[in-house]
Design goal:
alpha+beta; Trna Endonuclease, Chain: A, domain 1; 3 domains; 11 helices; elongated; CoiA_nuc; CoiA-like_N; Contains predicted nuclease domain (CoiA)
């Protein structure tokens, strides 16, 4: 821990503490000792590691350095509480930023792996007190290739936040997209800059700032192709990969049979199904888009369906932790409307034409 209470009942940072002073844990009030040296970051530790559930003992150097760096970053402009004791939920976030607008922001600097259940418990506890939660990830996350599911767990306003102590590097990733059979794509920005300041100020709900933080859902092909020949090559590549999945038995038999019963084949999907780049899906884009095409087929030409009814069928295909699925759904409908497939009117969808499967 970075903070302890001295004999005058005042909070004291470990890097400013005096070895001759007696210190106590702010949570359990039991004695703690000051530890630091040439190889260690100054910190406090319980003399007896028992009975205090608010602190995590054995913090790594990276975690201590990162926590201090984040404190210094925010403390320049905002009131920041380090390791606040939240006795109501027996939790202690790394930082609590007092925001002039909006709710206060709890910041957790995460260096080690954390399970989904534990992460949800931490989030739910902090949110139960009316706090927003921002996870800043350490070097172990920064230097590995994160899956889409893991990325969704830590997103805040559509961004991932990182701090690498050895490089003193603040970094963000945003505008995520996922093309089938390709790696997860994103843009990156060195430094938190105005983006994190907007978060701290509680202005991230502002429309202008919201666009800056979240970016626009990517449903067009700007990252996929730059010419007609590129488009042809891309579609050929996608169909080849899809055929290989079928040969390898990696496509659900129920889906293949469902298509067969309706006179369709998986390798003859409409081109539109192979052009998706939406991030946040627990299934490939082609699968998600195929389901949508089949649902519209069941609705039938010149028939209406309520948008919410259609969306309710599609939400199951997103990662549970992904928060922007409504934006992706809206953007996908807009893409179909722009192509003349559907008409959007008063929260209802009219099927104007059906996307055709490719013939042999």
């Amino acid at each position: 821990m970075l903070l302890a209470i001295n004999s005058s009942n005042q909070y004291c940072f470990a890097n400013l503490a005096n070895r001759s002073e007696n210190y106590r844990c702010p949570a359990c009030k039991k004695p703690v000792v000051l530890r630091h040296g040439q190889q260690n970051v100054a910190h406090f530790a319980h003399q007896v590691q028992a009975g205090c559930h608010s602190f995590t003992e054995g913090e790594t150097i990276d975690h201590l350095l990162g926590k201090m760096a984040l404190y210094r970053y925010f403390a320049k402009d905002y009131q920041v509480v380090v390791e606040p004791v939240l006795s109501q939920i027996s939790q202690r976030p790394d930082l609590l930023v007092k925001r002039p607008r909006g709710t206060d922001l709890a910041i957790e600097y995460q260096c080690s792996s954390i399970g989904r259940k534990r992460l949800q418990e931490r989030n739910q506890g902090l949110e139960s007190l009316g706090l927003e939660v921002l996870w800043v990830l350490g070097p172990a996350y920064y230097h590995r290739r994160l899956s889409g599911e893991l990325t969704c767990r830590f997103l805040y306003c559509g961004r991932l936040f990182f701090y690498v102590p050895k490089q003193k590097r603040f970094d963000t990733r945003f505008n995520f997209s996922k093309t089938d059979f390709h790696k997860l794509q994103y843009e990156s920005q060195t430094g938190f800059g105005a983006v994190l300041s907007s978060v701290a100020n509680g202005t991230d709900n502002d429309e202008r700032v919201g666009r800056q933080l979240t970016g626009q859902p990517i449903v067009n092909q700007t990252r996929l192709v730059s010419s007609t020949s590129d488009l042809v090559q891309h579609l050929l590549y996608q169909r080849t990969k899809l055929t290989l999945l079928m040969v390898q038995g990696r496509v659900k038999v129920d889906l293949i049979n469902y298509l067969y019963e309706r006179g369709h084949r998986l390798d003859q999907l409409p081109d539109w199904c192979l052009l998706g780049q939406a991030f946040g899906l627990a299934v490939p884009n082609w699968h998600f888009r195929l389901v949508l095409v089949l649902l519209l087929e069941r609705v039938g030409l010149n028939h209406w369906i309520f948008e919410e009814r259609l969306s309710a069928r599609l939400r199951q295909y997103f990662y549970p932790s992904f928060q922007d699925h409504e934006k992706i759904l809206k953007a996908t409908y807009a893409d179909l409307a722009a192509s003349g497939v559907i008409c959007l009117q008063d929260n209802k969808i009219l099927v104007i034409k059906l996307l055709q499967f490719v013939a042999d």
